[in-house]
Specification:
Elements (H helix, E strand, L loop, with lengths): L8 H9 L14 H7 L4 H7 L39 H13 L4 E5 L2 H10 L7 E5 L4 H10 L6 E5 L4 H7 L4 E7 L11 H10 L3 E5 L4 H4 L9 E5 L13 E5 L1 H15 L5 H11 L2 H20 L4 E5 L9 H4 L9 E6 L3 H10 L4 E2 L9 E5 L2 E2 L1 H6 L7 E4 L5 H13 L2
Parallel strand pairs: 2-3, 2-4, 4-5, 5-6, 10-11, 11-12
Antiparallel strand pairs: 1-7, 6-7, 8-9, 9-13, 11-13
Helix pairs in contact: 4-11, 5-10, 7-8, 12-16, 14-16
The site of pyridoxal-5'-phosphate has 12 residues, from helix 5.
Length: 416
């Protein structure tokens, strides 16, 4: 494994004596990130240490925040960084770590998940094209395709996504993009990704997946032939409910276009400070995902065995839709699961109101447990549109003691 590059002491002394600074071009640094690409380093180690220390000057173990809008070439003789809408060392540094986690040539950070998603979609379509997407993708993405892109003559077809033949049947002569999420939101149905990708490829479509739920720790869709992976980094990647950010990852060719055209032109770049916070979140991503998974499994098992509960939706429960087929590529599950209590929407609303440890609202992926049900935390019409049962309760299991979460659910389920 190559050693971390060290700047010779004599050069440091000389530059200090002449009152000059050393600028380190992290994009060319042959440090641990690059070494990890060629070895089989585990994701946990990439998370913890993938962010190499670029500060060979002071030895700071945490990379500095380059809170700059611009960079001068006077003393560098040409650094790759010129202006932070285009690129920035702190952002670059975080992107390299994420690229490694997604097995991508390159990753790019954005100011939000929606900035990442809209830019990724725009990079693969033009006026007059046709997009096929699965029904229960993230609401903001659906709205972008249905309400916004339609203004430019871009049409769309919604499919369920479980049957690759349905995708084949939806292809039109002007189709150029297939966009989906797996697991689907709320019911967490696991779609047959390799089959969908092969239909999509044969039809000449680009494929984009929103991989926010599984995170790069448990699913790497680029390995299955998907062209671009998008994430809302506001969820698990950030993990502390303190930042809004987005990510796109893919091949050098697709990413080059996306960064140079969509990100630079539309200006959806991430702020260096947000990028630094994101890098901090990622250091604990693997250990957090492990705990979210363990705790969610404990909650799912408790709910499955409870007499007041009907269906439980969690990809690791036996009999979950698509579970057997997806074992090859879904290596684990995150902390988001859903269930239906016995009874109607009045019962599910009462349960969510009676929970004490779960906050109520639509987001997830943070340290705190969340809950939501149609009519309480989300609209009833939205739920009906994406086909989720009126009594469905979605939980995001946070990092609290799972025994205490189970006890809270138990009291809420038992009050009548
Ligand atoms: C939250 C979310 C988004 C949108 O991301 P923002 O960071 O809020 O813009 C996209 N997809 C999924 C699956 C999400 O949960």
């Amino acid at each position: 494994m190559p050693a971390i590059m060290r700047i010779p002491e004599s050069i440091i002394k000389l530059t200090r004596a002449r009152n000059r600074i050393i600028i380190i071009d992290t994009s060319k640094l042959e440090g641990n990130i690059l070494a990890m690409k060629s070895s089989n380093t585990s994701k946990q180690t990439i998370c913890a240490r993938g962010a190499i220390n670029p500060d060979t000057l002071h030895g700071a173990v945490v990379p500095p925040i380059y809170q700059n809008s611009l960079f001068s070439i006077r003393n560098t003789g040409g650094s790759p960084f010129v202006y932070s809408r285009v690129s920035n060392p702190t952002v670059d540094f975080v992107e390299k770590g994420i690229a490694k986690l997604e097995n991508a040539d390159r990753a790019a950070c954005f100011s939000s998940g929606m900035a990442a998603i809209s830019s990724a979609i725009l990079s693969r379509v033009k006026g007059g094209d046709h997009i096929i997407f699965t029904r229960n993708i993230y609401g903001g993405t659906r709205s972008f395709i249905v309400n916004y892109l339609s203004r430019f003559g871009i049409t769309h077809t919604l499919i369920d996504g479980r049957d690759p033949d349905e995708l084949q049947a939806a292809v039109q002569p002007n189709s150029t993009l297939f966009y989906f999420e797996s697991p689907t939101s709320f019911l967490l149905t696991l779609l047959p990704i390799p089959e969908l990708v092969s239909v999509s490829r044969r039809a000449g479509l680009s494929t984009i997946i929103d991989n926010t739920w599984a995170s790069p720790i448990y699913q790497n869709p680029l390995d299955l032939g998907v062209d671009l992976v998008v994430h809302s980094a506001s969820k698990y990647l950030g993990g502390h409910s303190d930042l809004i950010a987005g990510v796109v990852a893919g091949s050098d060719a697709l990413m080059e276009k996306l960064v140079n055209e969509e990100r630079t032109t539309l200006g959806g770049c991430i702020d260096p400070h947000q990028a630094w916070l994101l890098g901090r979140g990622i250091r604990t991503l693997a250990v957090r995902m492990k705990q979210h998974r363990e705790s969610a499994m404990q909650v799912a098992q408790f709910l499955s065995g409870h007499e007041a509960v009907g269906m439980v939706y969690y990809p690791e429960l036996p009999g979950h839709e698509g579970r057997v087929e997806s074992k090859a590529w879904l290596k684990g599950s995150s902390g988001v699961l859903s269930f239906q209590p016995k009874g109607g929407n009045d019962v599910s609303q009462r349960i969510v109101r009676d929970l004490r440890m779960f906050e109520v609202g639509p987001s997830w992926g943070g340290f705190e447990s969340m809950s939501i049900t149609p009519g309480f935390g989300m609209g009833i019409a939205d739920a009906a549109f994406i086909g989720i049962p009126e009594n469905l309760i979605r939980l995001s299991i946070g990092l609290e003691d799972p025994e205490e979460l189970v006890a809270d659910l138990e009291q809420a389920l038992e009050q009548r």
